[in-house]
Amino acid sequence: MALDKQIHLYSIDTSRFYNDAEFEISKKKMKATYIVNGLKEKRKKEKNDLKIKFYDRWIKIFNACKTIYSEELTGKIQSNSDKNIANGIPRMLDYRDSNKDNFLVSEFTSSVTRSFGIKEDQITEDIIIVRVYYVELFKDLLTNGFIYDNKKYIYYSSSAGQIRTKKAVFVNEEKWNESKNRLMCGLSEEIINSKGGCNTNKFLAYTSLSNSATDLWKDVFKHEFDINKCIVVDDFETMVNTTYDHVSSEDFSINRVTKDSLIPHMDGCGLISSKISNKNFMIRMPWVKGLLASFDFNKFIELNKCSSVVVDIYGISHDVVKEDIEIILTKSQFKMYKYYDSWEQYKLMFIEYQCECGICNLEENNIKNSRINYQMLQTLTDIKKEEMSELLKPSNANIKKLSNDFNHILKSFGVNGQCNNKRYKSNLQNALNLYPELMQDPYVKDTLYDIKRALLKRYKGGKLEVDGKYIFIIPDLYAFCEWLFLGEQNPKGIIENGNVSCKIYKDKKKLDLLRAPHLYREHAIRSNIYNESEMCQEWFVTNAIYVSINDPISKILVFDVDGDKSLVVSDENFVKIAERNMKGIVPLLYDLKKSDPSLITVDSKYQGLTSAFKANIGTISNNITKVWNSGLVGEKELDIVKWLCAMNNAEI
């Protein structure tokens, strides 16, 4: 779902907005860069010392030229952008002599593409992605937008992933004005600012939710989405006693502390009646995101003979049974609740502006096995040779099957994969499907060799086959209903601390729960009680893994439950190694500051985005890897990893 519906759009960089003078300087800089790269390639192959000195001299000269042109270009862009901002003159998008098709990329359909009327497989110019190389020029675009083909384009938003790659999404202003109420459910920057503003980067992240890959509710469930059958209730939080290693933000001292911590168990998670869906999935509406977990709350009310009346986040009572409520959202899922006067106001605007509900990541019936990565391996620092040999068996078997198992070979080409639609398969895949004997063709044999080589490279990089699957993490929903309907402030739920319920691995007694990125020792070894608990079998019927509300597991794996997945490994050998390495390990605790709300302006967007563009979490993660692979990892090395993890989280 969603992954088979795409539109095509243009992705360019800020150089496409140069005026003639800037473009001429840019050409000189590019020519100098090209010469330097060519000289460096020749130097690599040269063995004569005199010629090496000759190349070094000219590399130095042209590097100096490149620096001069770069500084000249930056100055020119800064000067021109300042003038444009002062005069309100937008830049022009100019492809010059370039082939536009070289800039085409594909994107999944979303609320934005549907609101703009962009059809599946259509090439659109209503949305243009811009990669930022010169922030001075980006401020110009952010302030004035730009002109292309006599149309004005304005900045729309950037998702968290786009911010990491310094990308910004611009849209046709006319299309945006036609669709903004539908995409923002009646809110605007002016309304948000009149009510105290919002953290700008969070606002951009929430705005970009409409641009994420989704399918329409009615396309999946074959009936229209009814906002009147939804309510929003408070988040469910309890105090959980937890032991931490506290890393001080002042002097980086590390102290082991035990304290009660407030854990938001339903952070990003809501309920959908199992009568509507027996699967878990993620939801997207204007300002609403998170996971909808399938649970029969009507059955809970009936069996416990409790009141079906609950209070929403605005203090209004709702009768879940009489109102035929199908979805119970939580406050953490409704990101901009502060800017509406009531849930009724949101619903009225949702209907008036014909807003839509999209869904994504619908739980699969058969979840395929996944691979671990090098981060999950490197934290297991005492693996014995015979244990490693055992871990490598599935990967070695997979390599061998590429030589002697014909069906497996076809699968490696994607011939008999999950998607059976010929439209989304390559010509080679369709040809092999019709005529498998084509496997004897020299070109196909060479392709198979490339597949095998790529697989070996992944395995050598630590991406090993394991008996493990990525599955949704869900809290004990029975405990949530005890709190919501029975009014119990400290409910017991079904699952006790140290246990989980996982139907997929019902025959496995112990499981290792993992999350990526995996920087510290973050292996959560838990006992699977699904087979032993009739209550778990009755209430937790999906393919998710359910965790206890009395377990600080979210502090170990650093997850929320808005659709986060855990790699759940059931391999007994792997679990045994992880359990041994987790002795004495507790979660880390940091002193992290929160950003305050601010007025949403061009300046606040510019400051927020350019600050985020500078984040260097990759560098910190690489340094952590160096520590794990430095040899014997003792207390000193563990402390260094703790410090680096604190720095990494502060950077985020």
Characterization of this structure:
- The chain is α/β, with parallel strands linked by helices.
- The two termini are 31 Å apart.
- A hairpin with a 6-residue loop joins strand 10 and strand 11.
- Helices cover 40% and strands 20% of the residues.
- The longest helix has 39 residues, at 49-87.
- The chain has a 7-stranded mixed beta sheet. It has a 7-stranded mixed beta sheet with strand order 8-18-13-14-12-17-9.
- The model has no long low-confidence stretch (mean pLDDT 93).
- The relative contact order is 0.11.
- Helix 1 (20-45) packs antiparallel against helix 2 (49-87), helix 2 (49-87) packs parallel to helix 4 and helix 13 packs across helix 14.
User: What is the rounded distance between the termini?
Assistant: 31 Å
SS-based structural class?
alpha/beta
| Helix proportion | 40-55%
Overall outline: globular
Mean pLDDT: 93
Which stretches are poorly predicted, pLDDT < 50 over at least 5 residues? none
What characterizes the major β-sheet? Answer: 7 strands, mixed
Radius of gyration: 28 Å
Give the tally of β-strands. 25
What is the count of DSSP helices, taking H or I runs of 4+ residues? 23
Portion in beta strands: 15-25%
Main sheet strand line-up: 2-5-6-7-4-1-3
